[in-house]
TrEMBL record:
InterPro entries: Endo/exonu/phosph_ase_sf, Ig-like_fold, INPP5B_PH_dom, IP5, IPPc, OCRL-1_2_ASH, OCRL1/INPP5B_INPP5c, Rho_GTPase_activation_prot
Enzyme Commission numbers on file: 3.1.3.36
GO MF annotations, alphabetized: inositol-1,4,5-trisphosphate 5-phosphatase activity; phosphatidylinositol-4,5-bisphosphate 5-phosphatase activity
Protein name stated in the entry: phosphoinositide 5-phosphatase
Subcellular location(s) per record: Cytoplasmic vesicle, Phagosome membrane; Early endosome membrane
SUPFAM superfamilies: DNase I-like, GTPase activation domain, GAP
Length: 800
C-alpha cells in the first residue's frame, strides 16, 4: 500500500511527498519500525515518522526527525543482505543505519534518495574522488553493464552445467492449518536442493480477504522451515503474501545467497475489473549469477467449464504483473521478459469429456497417458492458447484433486467432483532439465495433494569468470571514435481500425549494421513531455544492440478511457512521429498513423442521448458538435433525445431479463473476447444477444468507468460527500436531466437485483463497486473519501 498519502496529509501546501517506504532503524541492541518520506520543498528532505502498523491517514503518523539532503548528507553504504537492503546515511556528524524490506517501494525510495543526493553533488563544485566514484556506481551510469550482460547471455553455454538446483512445490492447503510434517514433500530428494520456491492458498477467510495479515502465514512458514532438507542450511530470501492468501516462499542455501541480487516481488488480482475476486498471482524475480529468473505462483479461475476464463487469467497475469526496475528510466519488466520463468500453482484446469467413473477407472489402471489426453491444460497448450514456449514434465502420478480431507479417498461429498490435475509446475528457459515431477500422497492435510518438481541448472564459477573477463577485454579494445549505425525494417506504420481497449501491435526490427555496439532510445520531441502520444508505446523504449545483432521493438497502440473521448469525436487522431535517437549517432524518424473507430465507451451521456443511430454511423462533424456541448444544454433539437443512452439500456435490459438470478453477478469477471463482441455490437448496431451474463455485467461497469463526465458530474462530488443520507435525493434532483435519468435507472435496477439476493448471492457491500464509478473525483481518492462515496450510494440501494 502507498503510505505517502498519510505523509502528504501532514505537509504544508508547498511540500510534496515524492515517495514513502517502511523501514527498521537499527539501534545497538534492537530495531524500531519507522516510516520514511522523501519530501520536496525548497530542497529534498527525509522525514522520519513513528507510525501505526499501516499508515492510511495523518492520524496514523507522527513526525520524529527531518534530515536535509544537502552537501552535509551522504549515503555512506548500501548493501543487500539476503532480501533486505541495509543503508547507512550520514548527516554532519551523525549516522543512521536503516533496514528496508524487499519491494518496489523500498527500491523506488532508495533510487529517489540517490537521485536527489547525486543531483545536489552535481550542482555543487566541490566534487571529491570518492563522491564521483559513488555517483558513477549508481544505476543511471551503468550503461556498459547491459552490453556485458548481453554478451554473457550469448555465451551461456560455455559456463553452465547441470546440477541439483531448484525445488519447486505447489500445495493448495485450502485454508487449513498445519496438522502434519511436510518432510515427505520437501525432503523427498536424496541431495539437498539449492533453492526452494513453493506454496499456494493458505487462508480463505473473510479476514484474509480484507486484511493482508493472517496468523496462518506464520504457522505454515514454520511448518515449511522445519521440513526443509536437513543436510543444508537455508536462508529466507523472500516471503510474500497476497490478499486472500496466495503465498510464495523462497529459500536459498546460505552459500548461494551472495550470488542472488535484484530481488523484487509483485502481485496481481484477476477478479472483475481487476478489483475483486480471490484469484490472481504473486511473483518474485531475481538475478542468479547472470540469469534473470521469475517465479510465479498463481491461482486461476475455478469450475470445469471455465477453461477460457483460466486462459484469460493467465494472459492477464502475464501482461499486468510488472516489476519496477532499479533504473527508473527503464520500463517495467513483465514476466515473459525474463530468461527463465518458473510457474507453479493451482491452475484449476480439469478433465473434460469423461464422467467420474471413467476417470477413476483409468486412474485405477495407472493409465495416466490416456487420462492426460483429456486434460484441459494439455489441450490448451497444444492449440497454443496458453503457456506458449513453456514445458511441463511427463505426468505419471494420479490427479491431485479432489480428496476427502485427511485421507486418500476421492471426494465423497454430494458434488462428487471429478479428479483432476489442478496443481501444476511448468517452466521456460534455456539449459534447464527436470529431474522429477510427482505428487506426494503421504500429505493429507488438504483436499489437494502437494506436487514437486526438481529442475537443475548451475553456473560454473571459474568458466563464468573467464568468460566475463574476456568480454570486458573485447569491449575495452573497441574504438570509441566509431559511429554507431542502425538499419530499420520500416519507417512508416499504419494501424487499421483501432478500437477501444483493443491491443494492436506492429514490430519494428532494429539491426546494428555498424562497427560498434549501440545504445538507442526514443526521445521527446521539442515542447512535448513524453516520447509518444499516450495511446502509443514502444517496448522497449531504450536498449543496447551488440554489433551485428538485431532487436525487435513492439509498437503498441492501446486506447483507454482517458484517451477515448478526444478520439471518439475527432479532436485527436491516431497520428504521431517517433524519434529514435542513437547515442553518439544520428536520429531516425518513424511515422505512426491509423484510423480510430468511434465507440460509446468514452462518449458522454449527453452525446449518446442525442444519437438514435449507432455511433459508428454518425458523421464526424456531428460527434464533434455534440462533444463540445454542455450536459446542461437544453437547446431545442429537431428530434426528441433519448432519456438514457440506448447502449446503457441494452446492457441493463439484457441483465434484467437474463441475470437477475445469476450467481456471483458483478463478482466474477467476463471474457475479454466477449467484451470485444459486446463493444462492437453496441457501436455498430442492435444485436439479438450481447453475450454471457458475466461479460455483459463487466461491460456495463467498463462503460460507466469510461464516461468522460461521471453519472454524478464532478461539480457535485464535494456536495455528495458532505451531505447527509436524507439530503442525497435532493442533490440527485439537481443533476443535468440525462445524468439524473441514468442514476435513477441504475439505482432501480440494482435494487431489483438485491431483491433476488437469495439466488444471486449479492449483498449491498458488493454493489458499492458502482459508487466509485458513478461518483468519481478528478483527484486520487483517499480511504476516507472512498468510504463516504460508498455510504452516499448505499442509501439509494436500501431505500424502498
Amino acid at each position: 500500500m502507498d503510505q505517502s498519502v498519510a505523509i502528504q496529509e501532514t505537509l504544508g501546501k508547498e511540500e510534496n511527498c515524492i515517495v514513502a517506504a517502511q523501514c527498521d532503524i537499527l539501534l545497538d541492541d534492537c530495531s524500531e519500525s519507522r516510516l520514511l518520506g522523501l519530501v520536496e520543498c525548497a530542497k529534498e528532505h527525509i522525514f522520519i515518522y513513528t507510525h501505526r502498523r499501516m499508515a492510511i491517514t495523518a492520524d496514523d503518523v507522527s513526525l520524529e526527525d527531518i534530515i536535509p539532503i544537502t552537501l552535509d548528507f551522504a549515503v555512506v553504504e548500501q548493501l543487500v543482505v539476503v532480501a533486505d537492503t541495509r543503508v547507512r546515511m550520514s548527516y554532519k556528524n551523525e549516522e543512521l543505519e536503516l533496514r528496508l524490506p524487499f519491494g518496489s517501494h523500498s527500491r523506488l525510495f532508495l533510487c529517489e534518495v540517490n537521485k536527489a543526493w547525486s543531483d545536489d553533488l552535481v550542482r555543487s563544485s566541490s566534487h571529491t574522488t570518492s563522491n564521483k566514484a559513488q555517483i558513477l556506481a549508481m544505476p543511471q551510469f551503468g550503461l556498459r553493464d547491459n552490453l556485458i550482460r548481453c554478451e554473457l547471455l550469448k555465451s551461456e553455454d560455455s559456463y553452465t552445467y547441470l546440477e541439483n538446483f531448484f525445488f519447486l512445490g505447489t500445495y493448495n492447503v485450502n485454508g487449513q492449518t498445519p496438522k502434519e510434517s511436510l518432510r515427505p514433500w520437501l525432503s523427498c530428494t536424496p541431495e539437498p536442493p539449492d533453492i526452494y520456491c513453493l506454496f499456494q492458498e493458505l487462508d480463505l477467510s473473510k479476514e484474509a480477504f480484507f486484511f493482508s495479515d493472517t496468523p496462518k502465514e506464520l504457522e505454515w512458514m514454520k511448518a515449511v522451515f522445519e521440513a526443509l532438507h536437513e543436510e543444508a542450511n537455508y536462508a529466507l530470501q523472500v516471503k510474500l503474501i497476497r490478499l486472500v492468501g496466495i503465498m510464495l516462499i523462497f529459500y536459498v542455501k546460505k552459500e548461494h545467497a551472495e550470488f542472488i541480487s535484484d530481488v523484487e516481488a509483485e502481485t496481481v488480482g484477476t477478479g472483475i475489473m481487476g478489483r475483486m475476486g480471490n484469484k490472481g498471482a504473486v511473483a518474485i524475480r531475481f538475478r542468479f549469477h547472470n540469469s534473470d529468473i521469475c517465479v510465479v505462483n498463481s491461482h486461476l479461475a475455478a469450475h470445469v467449464e471455465e477453461y477460457e476464463r483460466r486462459n484469460q487469467d493467465f494472459k492477464d497475469i502475464c501482461s499486468r504483473l510488472q516489476f519496477r526496475q532499479l533504473d527508473p528510466t527503464q520500463p517495467p519488466l513483465t514476466i515473459l521478459k525474463h530468461s527463465v520463468v518458473l510457474w507453479i500453482g493451482d491452475l484449476n484446469y480439469r478433465i473434460s469429456d469423461l464422467d467420474v467413473d471413467k476417470v477413476k477407472d483409468l486412474i485405477a489402471k495407472n493409465d495416466f497417458e490416456t487420462l492426460h489426453s483429456y486434460d484441459q491444460l494439455k489441450r490448451q497448450i497444444d492449440v497454443e492458447a496458453v503457456f506458449v514456449g513453456f514445458k511441463e514434465g511427463e505426468i505419471d502420478f494420479q490427479p491431485t484433486y479432489k480428496y476427502d480431507t485427511g485421507s486418500d479417498k476421492w471426494d465423497t461429498s454430494e458434488k462428487c467432483r471429478i479428479p483432476a490435475w489442478c496443481d501444476r509446475i511448468l517452466w521456460k528457459g534455456k539449459n534447464i532439465q527436470q529431474e522429477h515431477y510427482k505428487s506426494h500422497m503421504d500429505v493429507r492435510t488438504s483436499d489437494h495433494k502437494p506436487v514437486s518438481s526438481l529442475l537443475i541448472k548451475r553456473v560454473n564459477p571459474d568458466a563464468y569468470k573467464k568468460t566475463f573477463e574476456e568480454i570486458v577485454r573485447n569491449i575495452d579494445k573497441m574504438e570509441n571514435e566509431c559511429i554507431p549505425s542502425l538499419s530499420l525494417s520500416k519507417r512508416e506504420f499504419h494501424f487499421k481500425d483501432v478500437k477501444f481497449m483493443q491491443h494492436h501491435a506492429e514490430t519494428l526490427n532494429l539491426f546494428n549494421d555498424g562497427q560498434v555496439p549501440c545504445q538507442f532510445e526514443f526521445i521527446q520531441k521539442p515542447n512535448e513531455s513524453t516520447y509518444s502520444k499516450p495511446w502509443l508505446t514502444a517496448n522497449p523504449p531504450k536498449g543496447f544492440i551488440a554489433q551485428g545483432a538485431s532487436m525487435d521493438v513492439d509498437l503498441e497502440v492501446f486506447v483507454n478511457r482517458s484517451m477515448a473521448p478526444d478520439l471518439n469525436c475527432g479532436k485527436q487522431e491516431i497520428e504521431d512521429i517517433l524519434v529514435l535517437h542513437l547515442e553518439r549517432g544520428k536520429d531516425y524518424f518513424i511515422s505512426v498513423t491509423g484510423n480510430y473507430l468511434p465507440s460509446c465507451y468514452g462518449t458522454s451521456i449527453y452525446s449518446l442521448c442525442h444519437m438514435k443511430e449507432p455511433i459508428q454511423d454518425m458523421p464526424k462533424e456531428t460527434l464533434l458538435e455534440l462533444a463540445e456541448k454542455s450536459p446542461n444544454d437544453d437547446a431545442a433539437t429537431d428530434e426528441k433525445p433519448l432519456d438514457i443512452p440506448k447502449e446503457l439500456w441494452m446492457m441493463v435490459d439484457h441483465l434484467f431479463r437474463n441475470a437477475v438470478n445469476q450467481e456471483d453477478i458483478f463478482q466474477q469477471p467476463g471474457l475479454r473476447t466477449e467484451f470485444a463482441e459486446i463493444r462492437d455490437c453496441l457501436d455498430s448496431g442492435m444485436p439479438d444477444s450481447l453475450g454471457s451474463n458475466h461479460s455483459v455485467a463487466e461491460a456495463l461497469l467498463l462503460f460507466l468507468d469510461a464516461l468522460p463526465e461521471p453519472v454524478i458530474p464532478f461539480s457535485f462530488y464535494q456536495q455528495c460527500l458532505e451531505c447527509s443520507s436524507s439530503a442525497g435525493q435532493c442533490i440527485i434532483s439537481m443533476l443535468p436531466q440525462f445524468h439524473k435519468n441514468v442514476f435513477n435507472y441504475l439505482a432501480a435496477f440494482l435494487r431489483e437485483l438485491l431483491k433476488n439476493s437469495a439466488n444471486n448471492r449479492l449483498e449491498v457491500d458488493i454493489l458499492t463497486i458502482f459508487a466509485s464509478l458513478l461518483l468519481r473525483s478528478t483527484k486520487k481518492q483517499d480511504l476516507a473519501e472512498k468510504k463516504k462515496t460508498q455510504e452516499f450510494f448505499q442509501h439509494f440501494l436500501t431505500q424502498h
